[in-house]
Amino acid sequence: MNQLLALRAFVRVVDTGSFSRASDQLGLPRSTVSKLIIDLEKHLGIKLMHRTTRVLTPTSAGLEYCQQARRLVAELDEVDSAIRGQVLKPGGHLRVDAPASFANCLLIPALVDFHREYPDITVALGISDRAVNIVGEGVDCVIRAGKLNDMAMIGRKVADLEYLTCAAPSYLARRGLPVSPEDLAHNHLKAGYFSAGSGKAQPLIFEQGGKRIEVGDCAYSSNDGNGLKEMLLAGLGVGQHFTSIVQYYVDTGQLVSVLPDWSRPATPLHILYPPNRHQSARLKVFVEWVIHTFGVRE
Questions:
Q1: Residue 74: domain span
Q2: What CATH number does the domain containing 32 carry?
Q3: pLDDT tens, position by position, 237-261
Q4: Residue that terminates a domain, selected from 86, 101, 129
Q5: Is residue 225 part of a domain?
Q6: Which of 10, 49, 83, 274 is most deeply packed, by most CB within 10 A?
Q7: Are residues 170 and 219 in the same domain?
Q8: Is residue 67 part of a domain?
């Protein structure tokens, strides 16, 4: 038995809860992964997994063993990465997931610079505003805007995303320029965002001098940042989007800033990854590159 490979297979099975997903991520046949776990159980003389037709979970002994195995595998990967890093640049494949508007407008254009610096790293980019199961879907890291909800992941702050309230000139020509949040609420169409996970609509938020006003009842909404941007460009109402996404369209006259004396609280942008992957050389350089490229300069 290749005990190191068996340890890697066991940790991946526990993390994904599936022999099939573990085999896909390891690039091994499912039968090989299953046999590695069986051989490991025979070697230890204990049962590591509860197996049923529908559920695959570690035993209490298996869970304790997994924690130690995960630490050993991470330490070995760290040693390997340190040695490789002395003689060559990081290489290999990364699976990354990012929100639609950030991915299309900011990340993808910048990846040319990343490739120039790290030509041996390949990137598969998932583009979605939905919450991703990082471990279950074999994702190395995700970039997400908003509060951190998954405390099991390591989260690195990238930046605070400022908002801009705006509308298309065609809309303003039809409906006029709102003069206050109250005017916007009662006399204008709104375009907004709703959560891909919960379906809950987010209000437009306006703050000024300690006063806060929330404006809901959007006539048009999208669960995708690109969709919201296109709605605004099409003249479907007044909305709020990240300044970094819409500033180009304001500068070129395709959108117009509205109610500039009112602001919306910034949203933090984070990059998250599982704790057992933080020693991967390719992931480490990608995380640092994202923070350097998109982070706020002091």
A1: 3-86
A2: 1.10.10.10
A3: 999 999 999 999 999 999 999 999 9
A4: 86
A5: yes
A6: 10
A7: yes
A8: yes
Q: How far is CA 282 from the centre of its chain?
A: 17
Say if residues 9 and 34 touch (Cβ distance below 8 Å): no
CA distances from residue 127 to 52, 117, 131, 236, 258 in whole angstroms, order as listed: 34, 23, 11, 24, 29
Tokens of 216: 């809901």
What is d(CA 97, CA 255) in angstroms, rounded to the nearest whole number? 28
Quick one: pLDDT at residue 298? 41
The total number of residues shown for the chain amounts to 298
Cα 235 to Cα 170: distance, rounded to the nearest angstrom: 6
Q: What number is the average pLDDT over the span 27-35?
A: 89
Which pair of tokens denotes residue 159? 């930046």
pLDDT at 107: 95
Q: Is there a single domain that holds both residue 170 and residue 258?
A: yes
Say if residue 118 is in the same domain as residue 41.
no
Type of residue found at 153: M
Which among 146, 160, 143 has a CA at the least distance from the CA of 107? 143
For residue 179, being part of any structural domain is answered with: yes
CA–CA separation, 46 and 102 (whole Å): 48
Same domain, residue pair 177 and 255 = yes
Instruction: Tell me: do 175 and 238 sit in the same domain.
Output: yes
Reported for 48-57, long-range contacts at CB under 8 A and 24+ positions apart, including other chains, are: 48/10, 49/13, 56/13, 56/17, 56/18, 56/19, 57/17
Cβ contact 22:9 at 8 Å: yes
CA distance 25 to 138: 6
Q: Model-level pTM?
A: 0.69
Please report whether residue 157 resides in a domain.
Answer: no
Neighbours of 261 (CB within 10 A): 8
3-state secondary structure of 71: helix
Contact by Cβ (8 Å): 134, 253: no
The tokens describing 162, both together, are: 């400022």
What's the total number of domains in the chain? 3
